[in-house]
Design brief:
By secondary structure, the chain is an all-alpha fold. The protein has 13 helices and no strands. Helix 3 crosses helix 13, helix 9 packs across helix 13 and helix 11 packs antiparallel against helix 12. The N terminus is likely disordered.
Length: about 280
């Protein structure tokens, strides 16, 4: 009769259980990753702010129509500026959280942290982060530039076709919105592939695109998670414009949401790498 091994019995039985068990046991690392992601991306936040201030009036001009927000009694138009500010802040949050605009070399460090957590080889947060940054900063820099170039182009196209205010314009705008979320998945896949393989960046992007195409339905599910945590929830919390909801937003997005979503995408990407990409030596 085989001996009972408590260590084996306590290990998570499936991938979902393993995801949550490893995430919970590395909660402090994930919280540190979230907080440092924001701090290290301060230059990217400034750039995202410039992009957001330009594109919010372009994408949604009817949302910031001054005449719609003038108080009919007092003639005060402060509401439009407050609403515009929250829209800009919302778009900044979306661009930064999704890695569409981020400091690419630093993101390779965070990707290494997630990889080491999932491989159960994490010694310390800073050890993993330095390894990813030191070994992959060049690829991360190129990936960052690619995303910074493509993101405004897609936002410009979305705003252009939405302003048609017609059925065909809305349809084409929806196609570009889908492409924008596809770019989010590709960029997140790319950073995990960078720290997990020795492939050239062109091959890495090719694999990331193939992941989206051949695993379209699961990727659609991931996109819904991205939309929930990077679009719907922050929009509701920010547009509520109360101290309570703003406090909840700052707490969640400073310590939890960004790192957990990136950790989840890294988890899924790792499984795709095991299945479709040659294993590392």
């Amino acid at each position: 009769m085989p001996e009972f091994d408590p260590e084996v019995s306590n290990k998570p039985k499936g991938p979902i259980a393993r995801f949550f068990v490893l995430g919970w046991s590395n909660l402090v690392r994930l919280m540190a990753s979230n907080a440092l992601y924001i701090i290290f991306n301060i230059p990217a936040i400034i750039l995202a702010g410039i992009v957001a201030m330009y594109f919010v009036p372009w994408i949604a001009p009817h949302f910031i129509d001054v005449n719609s927000y003038i108080d009919p009694v007092t003639g005060n138009d402060d509401g439009v500026f407050q609403f515009a500010f929250f829209l800009v802040f919302f778009l900044i949050t979306f661009l930064i959280s999704s890695t569409l605009i981020c400091i690419g070399p630093f993101q390779t460090g965070f990707a290494q942290v997630y990889k080491d957590i999932l491989n159960e080889s994490s010694v310390s947060f800073f050890s993993s982060f330095k390894t990813g940054l030191r070994n992959n900063w060049k690829k991360g820099l190129v990936s960052m530039i690619i995303s910074i170039v493509l993101t405004p182009v897609l936002l410009l196209a979305i705003g252009f076709y939405l302003n048609f205010q017609s059925g065909i314009g809305t349809l084409i705008a929806a196609i570009f919105i889908v492409l924008l979320f596809a770019l989010i998945l590709v960029q997140n896949f790319v950073y995990t592939l960078i720290v997990s393989t020795d492939l050239k960046l062109t091959r890495i992007y090719k694999n990331a695109l193939l992941f989206v195409l051949i695993r379209f339905v699961p990727c659609l599910g991931i996109s819904l998670i991205v939309i929930l945590f990077y679009v719907i929830i922050p929009f509701i919390l920010l547009m509520s414009a109360s101290y309570l909801t703003l406090g909840i937003f700052m707490f969640l997005y400073s310590f939890f949401v960004i790192s957990w979503v990136q950790y989840f995408i890294s988890f899924y990407t790792g499984r795709l790498i095991e299945k479709y990409v040659a294993k590392e030596e």
